[in-house]
Amino acid sequence: MKETGLENAERVLTDLAKGRGIHLLEAPTPVPGLRVNIYFVERPVPTLIDAPMKDVLSLAELNEQLQPLGHSLNDIEVIIVTHPHIDHFGSAADIAEMSGAQVWATEDTARWLENYDSECLEEERFQRAFLDRAGVPADLIAGLGQYFQFLKEFACPVRVSRRLGVGEVIELDSGRFRLEHVPGHTPWCVMMVDDSKKIAFTGDFLLKDISSNPLVQRPWNLPDGYRSIEAYASSLRRAAGMGLALALPGHGEVMRDPRERISTLLGFMNARTKQVMDILGTRPDMTIYEIVEGIFPELPRDEIFLAVSEVFAHLDLLEGKGVVLRKSESVPSRYTLRR
């Protein structure tokens, strides 16, 4: 992932969000090369949009970046969480303990935050079974299980003080930010949109240099008929129609006029769907992992779940359209292209 320097990001924020008390902070994570954007808003109360992983270095850097603004983590009164991934809420409990901050999130995100340990246990079981059905070799599944155990230590349960509703308006400095549901990366992602100033905190829904992976979810947690690629494309088209002047993402550089980026992402998604079809057409039937190997021949081990999720999302879309058939009775599941 290409990351921005804090100084460059602050120049963009100063230009397009001048005088609005919005500051971009960057926190490291225990994942090499991965940094997360945390936004600090001074008024009406010191507020963070998302919180980094539960990590001493992350909190120390975040606190250091608050100092020139005349604040520290002890001053934080509200933490708003955009979606339930550990790099966006992991340290919320620690910050709340030191400052007394309230944590705000939607109902679905709150379920994850408050029941983190049990959610992780269910998630690990589901991921192992899903990867097995996808045809991922057993040794790789075991390695991914170890990586999952490593990552889960960088978050802990946190009580959510306020359940946010879609469409709800949150006052931040001189702006009024409306909560917009933007499923795709997860079914529960939200962004916060100031319709008058055309500024939005987009979380992981919209990033400048990578596409937000449509992560596979436990089926019993999904709305009826939910298909992640369809949901993500719909969310992107709605965002394009908002005419945003500035998108403030969860990772990487902020985006002026993000419509071109949205157009690029929609084009990429269509191209990936065609690529999956083309690869599937070379064999009588294939597992998800065999398709992954065709698309990502030199895939790092720690990105296997992301890649399998992405390919599954496109197969799920094609299956829904009747273009692909799944032999669901077999393990691993095998997919074939309708002739």
Question: Overview of this structure, please?
Answer:
With 339 residues, this protein is of the alpha/beta class. The protein has a domain at 6-122 and 151-258: Metallo-beta-lactamase, Chain A, CATH 3.60.15.10. Helices cover 40% and strands 19% of the residues. It has eleven helices and 14 strands. It has helices spanning 6-16, 56-66, 86-89, 92-99, 107-114, 116-133, 138-152, 228-240, 259-280, 288-295, 304-320, and strands spanning 22-28, 35-41, 47-49, 78-80, 102-106, 162-164, 169-172, 175-181, 190-194, 199-203, 246-249, 255-256, 324-327, 334-337. The protein has a six-stranded mixed beta sheet with strand order 1-2-3-4-5-6. A six-stranded mixed beta sheet has the order 7-8-9-10-11-12, with no helix packed on it. Strands 13-14 form a two-stranded antiparallel ribbon. Helix 6 runs antiparallel to helix 7 (138-152) and helix 10 (288-295) packs across helix 11. The longest helix has 22 residues, at 259-280.
What would the keywords be for this entry?
alpha/beta; disordered N terminus; 14 strands; single chain; Metallo-beta-lactamase, Chain A; 11 helices; six-stranded mixed β-sheet; 339 residues
Main sheet characteristics: 6 strands, mixed
The number of helical segments is 11
SSE string, helices as H and strands as E: HEEEHEHHEHHHEEEEEHEEHHHEE
Could you give the order of strands across the largest sheet? 1-2-3-4-5-6
- Contiguous runs where pLDDT drops below 50 for at least 5 residues: 1-7
* Radius of gyration using CA atoms only: 20 Å
Beta-strand fraction estimate: 15-25%
Helical content stands at 25-40%
Might you state the CATH topology name of the domain at 6-122 and 151-258? Answer: Metallo-beta-lactamase, Chain A
Could you name the CATH homologous superfamily of the domain at 6-122 and 151-258?
Answer: Ribonuclease Z/Hydroxyacylglutathione hydrolase-like
From the N-terminal CA to the C-terminal CA, the straight-line distance is 38 Å
Class computed from helices, strands and strand pairing: alpha/beta
> Which term fits the overall shape?
globular
Number of E-state strands: 14
Q: What's the architecture of the domain at 6-122 and 151-258 in CATH terms?
A: 4-Layer Sandwich
CATH first level of the domain at 6-122 and 151-258: which class? Alpha Beta
Mean pLDDT: 91
